[in-house]
Amino acid sequence: MTFIGDDIGYANVLSNQSLTDFISFRYHEWSSRLIIDCITVILAKENYIVWKILDIILYTLGVYLVIKFINKDNNKYVALIGVSLFLMYPFFDMAGAGWIATTLNYLWCFVFAMISFIPLINEINGKKTNIFIYIISILSLFYAVNQEQSCLLILGINTLYLIYCIVKKQDISRFNVLIVIVSALALTMILTTPGNAKRVIVETARYYPEYVNFGIIEKLYLGTIPTIGILLKDKVLFTVFYIILTASALLKTKNKYLKYILYFNIILILFLVFFKTLIDISSIPEYLNIGLMHNPTVVSAFSAVDSISKCIPLIYDTLSLFAYKGLPNAVTGSAVLAVLISIYLILSSCWMIFKTFGKEQMLPLILFIAGFMSRLAAGFSPTIFESGSRTAFFFYMTIIAVTLMLIRKLFDDDVLNKTLEKRITLILVILGLFTYMAVFAIVFVMF
User: Which of 55, 129, 217, 365 has a beta carbon 3.0–4.6 Å from 119's, enabling a disulfide?
Assistant: First the structure.
């Protein structure tokens, strides 16, 4: 495994300067991610072996903590589904800026954020936390809030939870307040670090010169439409989430008109994924230039798929717009439809989560909103397209968590018989394994 992307630069940092000099330079000229950069430099210098060991341990720990927090009764089917959902994540996104640099900035921040939540989760569940766990959690918090999206996610979740406790007149957790204070201070540092301001100027000129002319509406567009585009491109995880969410809402709804809307939701997501799949298949010859692609039969087959994908021009243009790296040149029917679809998918998800869990269980809705906001924030960076799909990582993690909460609720409420529960588990496990193998194949070919 050879170094790629930013890993190459990090591996050579200490060849001509000290770590202190590098961190000082980063603070004044480039970034506020001082803790993350420091550890990245050290691990890159040690080659991939140490990073691989630590990455496997931390990823496994992250999966375990999410399942443990949600699956309180240790239901083996819920646990299996939890693992399967993580297998559905398109893990090749973690190579975007180099394996070490990307995982330390996204995957590790997520895991350390989960560790920082342990005392708060214990307080909510009426459990005691020993001093060692408090120390580990606080240290983990310092790492997690060193990254902008992670900091916003932690601040958002804990602030919303604090407000919820105040409104509901529940006991306020002191650790919850501590997390809010630390993450707010970290955000202040992020906003005031001179290197961040200089970096925006450099990256705007390099990657997106038009960005300087964008206002709040354009930036919100950039944060929303490409986000839905990423979810539709990867197809599996969001589709599973949306279908399970819709099914859960259907079981809670007695109004027949609302049921029609929910049936429409399932048809909509399957329709979008079907057409997006056709578009992706038709574009394979552009990226896979091998002899087989020139076979007349193969050429005819791909041509037929391309014709089918374009049979409804409005849908084709709209789905293509989701992958368009920038703002549309004009307000067209496709542009308006893309905005409406994006807003509908997000708002309908929020409504169905609220409908399923009710106002007494607001955590799933808080997680979903906070996850979406962490990705929406990417629209306020000129590197939104250069960074690619990896900036949706935290949103993916909240989607996995909410999906697992939905599964647990379905199983706990006994609305499904045991045979159906086993079949759902089997289907999701198989889907997770096949998705993981497909991702592994892509990683093998690409890297």
Answer: 129
